[in-house]
Amino acid sequence: MKNLLSMEHLTNEEILHILERARAFENGEGSQLARSYNVANLFFEPSTRTKTSFEMAEHRIGCTVIPFDAGFSSALKGETMYDTVKTLEMIGLDAVVIRAKEDEYYNELLEGINCAVINAGDGAGQHPSQSLLDLYTIQKEFGTFENLKITIVGDISHSRVAKSNAAALTKLGANVRFLCPEEWAGQFEAHHSWDELIHDSDVIMLLRIQHERHSVSKSFSKESYHEQYGLTVEREAQMKDGAIIMHPAPVNRDVEIADELVECERSRIFQQVRNGVFARMAILETILKGRE
Amino acid sequence: MKNLLSMEHLTNEEILHILERARAFENGEGSQLARSYNVANLFFEPSTRTKTSFEMAEHRIGCTVIPFDAGFSSALKGETMYDTVKTLEMIGLDAVVIRAKEDEYYNELLEGINCAVINAGDGAGQHPSQSLLDLYTIQKEFGTFENLKITIVGDISHSRVAKSNAAALTKLGANVRFLCPEEWAGQFEAHHSWDELIHDSDVIMLLRIQHERHSVSKSFSKESYHEQYGLTVEREAQMKDGAIIMHPAPVNRDVEIADELVECERSRIFQQVRNGVFARMAILETILKGRE
Amino acid sequence: MKNLLSMEHLTNEEILHILERARAFENGEGSQLARSYNVANLFFEPSTRTKTSFEMAEHRIGCTVIPFDAGFSSALKGETMYDTVKTLEMIGLDAVVIRAKEDEYYNELLEGINCAVINAGDGAGQHPSQSLLDLYTIQKEFGTFENLKITIVGDISHSRVAKSNAAALTKLGANVRFLCPEEWAGQFEAHHSWDELIHDSDVIMLLRIQHERHSVSKSFSKESYHEQYGLTVEREAQMKDGAIIMHPAPVNRDVEIADELVECERSRIFQQVRNGVFARMAILETILKGRE
Q: Aspartate/ornithine carbamoyltransferase Asp/Orn-binding domain location, by residue (chains A, B, C) (predicted)?
């Protein structure tokens, strides 16, 4: 593993190795890297948790983080992604973590770039580090992925998380179902009612309504979305024993999920954030070690 | 002391402890913290000196500063302050330093948050770290607060500094007077002329005219403000021996104070900046130690 | 050398000393500084490579970098450059690296400021650290500057790089020629055709068309600029053996230079970026050591 671009490039073995290293880090093990590496985080879209989570992970495995202010960079002068990353490589960066608006922006970086590239989200494409922390959260809970019933709810067609997770979970043996309004199903076959899904789901994975990308919907107000597709207090009461709630956050309270459920017993929403640091330490370590 | 939210929450003993630790730091003493802590600075409003001062203080007491770009964060996606801070806590932050537009934003953070919260300015509310550095500056100069005549000049009603300082100084035994145009007195009883105040003030504490919050005044140009309420060269000449001039900065030269007085012998304006690093080291140490 | 403001202030000895230290750093030598220094980078204009290059250089010579977000600072509140820098000095900064829109902004800082000032670009003025890395790149290639034929191409009159380099190279014995449209020659005497220059140039130094400062030209489209003044594949074929191509970047591909030449054998464009870190380590070390 020389880069992390898309979940589709990862074998089950690679995924399970990263989860194992995440667990080792959570148990207090140190990094296996031979030296300190220089890393920069290039976030061309707003983010709190992903960027800060990577910063913390980098710090914890002994990397030096060289600040890069994407909102104020030469990209504003029309520089290509290739030239920006090549420049950072020549400055001495060993790895760059990138979030960008363009789907598969990393295709530009496959040739001629020698520093490691970690995709922290590409447009409406993939978000593999989020996917790996989600997998880690599920594995911690259930020990396995085999035959788990996992329901992904929301704007499937625009969600990086949905696409990354659906591919990976299926490959690992889980049974993935989708719930969303007709117009948001995209290429996927989706359910349109909670009735068939709420009772037997092991994991309910809510997606964020992305105000940035489009308004909730022409056909839905926030209130009517919550009523039809949100996880209400009534629906949570119908979930089976041991089932958990996940959300990549930031949460729109009372839209995707009722305000009072965000920190309820079933919710792993803030645990996911905590797990994210361990997953990202594992990602960075695996990639940097693979280049030693 | 688990957090620093408002000067009103501090006892005189807590204030004097912080000033004592600030003095120890200025004298070259090291931090008494048992380990390195992770800190983030969340500045949702522009600031040079406060943010940079905290960054330096954090560095000097051995903290790791995890960068957080408030102008580019999930707050833009409508995330609540609670969710932002809870997220940072789960990522592993031990303390967050926050400046925000909303008065008493920290009320949201009193329950459910386990990391330390340090208020670096809330709307038109309080600015306790500025207040503590002002107190430290006065204590260094006079050794005591008892019976000092302290004149605060400017937009009292909108000033975080005025409110924090007036409360604390009065509690510590000083005699605080206000000077401002009628419309800026707010809840306070104010003088409207320098005549009764210029000769016997030990400290003249000028406030910044806050262009960001409102124009100087409908009734005043910058020139006429300077003439009526500014510290002119003529007025400085009437100050008593040993009296000092303070200003939280940034200074509007020739508005609050004549350009040539900014670095005059009586001025402690840049000394305040220097003292601020020691005061903030003391604040951070006291709060983090109180949680060990 | 207490500051680095403009190439015009440097003697040949000072320049050659910096190049020698850059080479030592490239060869793996460590810094000669007695302690760790605190440095801030104040970039009031967008930049990737210069800011990141300074950050890396500061890190490599053991400095502590205190973050400063110029786009979000008190300068927005109308603070003068003097007051901003004086404040940073009082906070404990030993050196500040500044890029600003105003020509010779540093004149304000010549009196009363005790921390070191390193000019990272002033308006349409100078860009001395870029110039020093260019000189280092040329020296590495040719061993000397004497009698080298160096052709600078582009918007001479608005280019910080052109001005800094022309002055320094001439002083060091090189023969500098300019090529540009009539309207961009400014105070310089320029050629208007490649014909007299392409065959005997040792160095072709292309300048960036600065979209930020003005549109390409009223009289030129990007295509016609490329045709008349750009380095095309045909022109590169006429360059003499051993001649090299330089560009301060970011490159406008197919405007100043044909896309396929950016990483051709003659090109030193990305090598310049790499050399920039060594040159900046040398600059910082020389200035901080000069103050010990």
A: 147-286
